[in-house]
């Protein structure tokens, strides 16, 4: 085989692999995943402004982040329906230590904390309002 054919096959294989990886990443975007029971159990979250009377939706954003506005709209909608759920938005540029402590690797990243300050769920991307409702409902006191 000529080097042109080999290069063409290598490029085609790389494109197929990139498409498959992209599909997997897109399917996981916005999906709320349950946090491990010990995730953040020994961490101090007092600097995050979490509610002590009910669950808190915390999301990291930035002015330069386009999808962060969509998260803000979804969270405001859910919190309007569930008035005992608090909403905290932190700018990642202003709170890099908190973002690092919570292992924020991409924006937007959203966390659900219970009234005791334990991380219960997290997602990267824009969560669906119905998904937020379904995980917040059992956490309400």
TrEMBL record:
MF GO annotations: protein-disulfide reductase activity
Annotated GO biological process: cell redox homeostasis
Keywords annotated in UniProt: Disulfide bond, Electron transport, Redox-active center, Transport
Boundaries of every Thioredoxin domain copy: 29-141
A GO CC term attached to the entry: cytosol
PANTHER family: GEO12009P1
Function statement: Participates in various redox reactions through the reversible oxidation of its active center dithiol to a disulfide and catalyzes dithiol-disulfide exchange reactions.
Entry's family note: Belongs to the thioredoxin family.
Protein name, entry field: Thioredoxin
Organism annotation: Mycobacterium gordonae
Higher taxonomy: Bacteria, Bacillati, Actinomycetota, Actinomycetes, Mycobacteriales
């Amino acid at each position: 085989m000529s080097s042109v054919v080999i290069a063409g096959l290598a490029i085609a294989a790389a494109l197929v692999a990139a498409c498959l990886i992209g599909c997997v990443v897109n399917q996981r975007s916005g999906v709320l995943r349950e946090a491990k029971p010990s995730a953040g159990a020994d961490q101090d979250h007092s600097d995050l402004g979490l509610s002590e009377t009910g669950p808190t939706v915390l999301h990291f954003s930035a002015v330069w982040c386009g999808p962060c506005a969509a998260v803000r709209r979804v969270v405001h909608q859910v919190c309007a329906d569930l008035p005992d759920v608090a909403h905290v938005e932190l700018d990642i540029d202003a709170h890099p230590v908190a973002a690092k402590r919570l292992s924020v690797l991409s924006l937007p990243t959203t966390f659900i904390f219970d009234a005791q300050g334990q991380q219960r769920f997290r997602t990267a991307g824009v969560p669906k309002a119905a998904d937020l409702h379904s995980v917040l409902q059992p956490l309400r006191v």
